[in-house]
Amino acid sequence: MDSKKRSSTEAEGSKERGLVHIWQAGSFPITPERLPGWGGKTVLQAALGVKHGVLLTEDGEVYSFGTLPWRSGPVEICPSSPILENALVGQYVITVATGSFHSGAVTDNGVAYMWGENSAGQCAVANQQYVPEPNPVSIADSEASPLLAVRILQLACGEEHTLALSISREIWAWGTGCQLGLITTAFPVTKPQKVEHLAGRVVLQVACGAFHSLALVQCLPSQDLKPVPERCNQCSQLLITMTDKEDHVIISDSHCCPLGVTLTESQAENHASTALSPSTETLDRQEEVFENTLVANDQSVATELNAVSAQITSSDAMSSQQNVMGTTEISSARNIPSYPDTQAVNEYLRKLSDHSVREDSEHGEKPVPSQPLLEEAIPNLHSPPTTSTSALNSLVVSCASAVGVRVAATYEAGALSLKKVMNFYSTTPCETGAQAGSSAIGPEGLKDSREEQVKQESMQGKKSSSLVDIREEETEGGSRRLSLPGLLSQVSPRLLRKAARVKTRTVVLTPTYSGEADALLPSLRTEVWTWGKGKEGQLGHGDVLPRLQPLCVKCLDGKEVIHLEAGGYHSLALTAKSQVYSWGSNTFGQLGHSDFPTTVPRLAKISSENGVWSIAAGRDYSLFLVDTEDFQPGLYYSGRQDPTEGDNLPENHSGSKTPVLLSCSKLGYISRVTAGKDSYLALVDKNIMGYIASLHELATTERRFYSKLSDIKSQILRPLLSLENLGTTTTVQLLQEVASRFSKLCYLIGQHGASLSSFLHGVKEARSLVILKHSSLFLDSYTEYCTSITNFLVMGGFQLLAKPAIDFLNKNQELLQDLSEVNDENTQLMEILNTLFFLPIRRLHNYAKVLLKLATCFEVASPEYQKLQDSSSCYECLALHLGRKRKEAEYTLGFWKTFPGKMTDSLRKPERRLLCESSNRALSLQHAGRFSVNWFILFNDALVHAQFSTHHVFPLATLWAEPLSEEAGGVNGLKITTPEEQFTLISSTPQEKTKWLRAISQAVDQALRGMSDLPPYGSGSSVQRQEPPISRSAKYTFYKDPRLKDATYDGRWLSGKPHGRGVLKWPDGKMYSGMFRNGLEDGYGEYRIPNKAMNKEDHYVGHWKEGKMCGQGVYSYASGEVFEGCFQDNMRHGHGLLRSGKLTSSSPSMFIGQWVMDKKAGYGVFDDITRGEKYMGMWQDDVCQGNGVVVTQFGLYYEGNFHLNKMMGNGVLLSEDDTIYEGEFSDDWTLSGKVGN
């Protein structure tokens, strides 16, 4: 790092970066301390364990501080100041991590080093209590051949385990416990093993709590085109079930594989924990079912619970199956006990719970009373059954609850009313406790109160959710509708069809592309997977079960999670929208909210106005870095709060119930926070020359901008798209195009906001900012969006929206004004909507302003200054350019409102813009009639000449304009040339003439460049040429010329005529490809003429002159004849060779000789291969005429005069036997003369 050149200001400023401040958890308000004994080195990253911490400096060195019992010597065990890890000297470390009592580091070449406590194998060393110094961990992929060392990107450490994320985005784990996610029961694992369950997926980040693990995983690409599997890979159950009833169809796609819902071998901290918890907030499911679960953690028995499906139909019959597999018995045997009554269930549960309590007692753990366990497990049995069906239903749900399965029960309307079902689940905990005959509250203590809390969450009544509810983005986690336990929604096929219709309208808002941006920026299409111990609900699956293997937290799908943090027994997820979801233990209020249940992710309520951009999770508290108005991050603390002196109220032990803002504004700009058990630490930058402040301003405003765009997308665009009667298909398509481009831009901004957050955690070098390095991504996205919204505006989209959207807009007027920042109450709704859609363009000015601020922090001569300055002007230029585009669109819209209706329909196009028009009589046609009306309208792609009700369009690409000289009598005249017209326009004043000439020239130039909608990137291309080139390439379809009518020419032009290389195609299939000169074929070219009768084509390749075949060429006829030779005026003329047919055809022949005007004339040789004759002699008008010789294949030889293909008059005949005949030949070839030998 030091070897890299830096400008002096940056080097000076870097001394004031990465300052370490440390607080004691729970004892606030208190000012932080500087880390004792720490010098001035810039710290890039810090990590805290229970009693120790690790610092990573800018030059890649690692320092440890705190209590380090694994080191040798009393001085090193509790050093007074951070000590350098000498084993890592010479290595450049890029990231560090700490567990409760161990540490890890990753070097730039991908090697992981571990040191510290190793009793559970968490340092990947076998049979060693402590690893005193950083020790390289050997990670090799056994599947690779040859064995390759796995390079590591990131480490995460828990209390007894470590996870490593490889460069190929796979997770490797070692240590002890189910939180490893490995398929093994042999602990400790000291040789790193791959977490196979996530192999093949792109893992973006890993995090470890004390005994649980989290992974941020990129969503799989769209599976639309791939066949959907019918059955679950793990348990072979059907993924989607459909039941056809008389008046309705029941469709269920809520299969939940029980993988991971496994009772593990008990660790030291295991207890008999219970849950009766609905699987809440599964937004991606169209139908939600109730999941009742119970786990008894047992040392000797690991019981895997397979899924059970119980269906109750109208025939009062009950069918229930349980598969229980015990590993202590011969494990392949499956017992299928059935419980005919409630008593059997009670007995079974009592055995489980008693056994579990006994095992815990042996480990010295406080036993949990078994009665509350039963009460939690079977809450429904305490409600008096009203009918026999109800009793059976109650039993099924309870039974399923006991063995931890998912129940999907379909009730017929007459068998069980909705009210009765609700009764089973609405019993309050107090009533349940009373009916059970014992109190649910055990001895006072956190563990018992936690269990009571879990029970209360589990017993809450849940509302039903219809199968056809269209998934909507919810702003508050608590407002989601939860499913009614055990019920499948019943809907008619008509409703299903209607639901499907609505849903297709909103697809456009989900960007499904994965282009350049995804490769350069963090992905927002993510999933959260969790595994490990779950007794505090820290896995987020709605229960308190452990998971042996990673399981996806479905309710975080689509939430755009960008970062995960795991505390001791709670978890945090930060989203791109600057929101935090939290779940798990909330004993001290560490989740930042008091919502129930805490076993599923809920939105933390940190600050009502500002978003969170960085998070940290300690043992029993959480930290949140929040954006503020002055861009200096605010630090909120939520969790354990120790009582102050003289304050002995026990309530204070419950922690801070609402997050508290710590006063740390004087410290500087916090770039990173990290949390341990009893202390937390912040890395702070001083704002030298405003550099750090400008970076924070850019990041904060970008994140806020994304939140606003997301709100517009979900609260305005989505409802607009779902409205009925939006107008013509074109309008709907244009609106969908706007929505699609808006969505794409919104996604890019979200990615950029996330990347800026991680940028602030790092070295903060200006040159590595994405808007500098990859500015084209942003410039292109903004330009594309502006093009789509101006096209929508030009086509009157906002006016067409007014009628169908008026009700929606009226209801949401305040929302519209708030989002668009329009404060004037008199502003019309459509104007506010217009402002709202053009809001993104304003952001470009902000980019330019902040980049300029950053540039001033560098010396003028430095490359950083130049780069920042150039980028700033680039964004400012684009902002001005797009501003002009908007004005052009509004000017064009105003013109269409006044233009005669019929012509508007034919001329109005989304991408067409008005430049100027002659309605003020400033331009007239020379020699026009007295009463004629000539209206000239210049668009960005055509000049339109309108007369009364007719009009003609002249494309600009094939339009030449030049001023007429005054000598020629053309006062203020403009000569307009097109391929088939030439006319003169007279302007009223010289200024008008100059204006029109300039406007036409610029429009033609832009049309030729094809850059009308592209910004002038850089300085060179922004300079307009004075006039467009006379010679150019263009495409044109002729409409008037008799020879070329309806033909299309694509090629080079010169002053209105095809000139140079080009292709000319006629509608009947004729085509010429080659050289042109002054509008005619001239030079070398290829010509094809289809022959429909023979279903073949004539084909000529050769030279042309003035539009006709002239010179050397080859003409292949459809009949099979081929002529090679000279042409003149489209005819064979001169020397040539004509082949007719082939040797196998009926009349093959060949002629070589002279041609005149398409006929054989002069000397020529004709070889008739079929008849075996060859004629050599003179020709005229395609027949033998004059002296000639015939030789036949039979040896006959004729020589004489020929007339009309016959030999006449004196001649000689020589036969095969040397007989010679000399004499006269008549028409019928009779001989009259002498014969000689």
From TrEMBL:
Residues covered by the DH domain: 690-885
Molecular function in Gene Ontology: guanyl-nucleotide exchange factor activity
Compositionally biased region (Basic and acidic residues): 445-455
Pfam families, alphabetized: DH_Alsin (PF25582), MORN (PF02493), PH_alsin (PF25383), RCC1 (PF00415)
Region annotated Disordered, chain positions: 432-480
SUPFAM superfamilies assigned to the protein according to its UniProt record, in alphabetical order: DBL homology domain (DH-domain), Histone H3 K4-specific methyltransferase SET7/9 N-terminal domain, PH domain-like, RCC1/BLIP-II
Skewed-composition ranges (Polar residues): 456-467
RCC repeat start-end pairs: 60-109, 110-168, 169-219, 526-577, 578-628
Keywords: Repeat
Keyword Coiled coil: no
Keyword Repeat: yes
Protein name as catalogued: Alsin Rho guanine nucleotide exchange factor ALS2
Organism: Homo sapiens
Gene name for this UniProt entry: ALS2
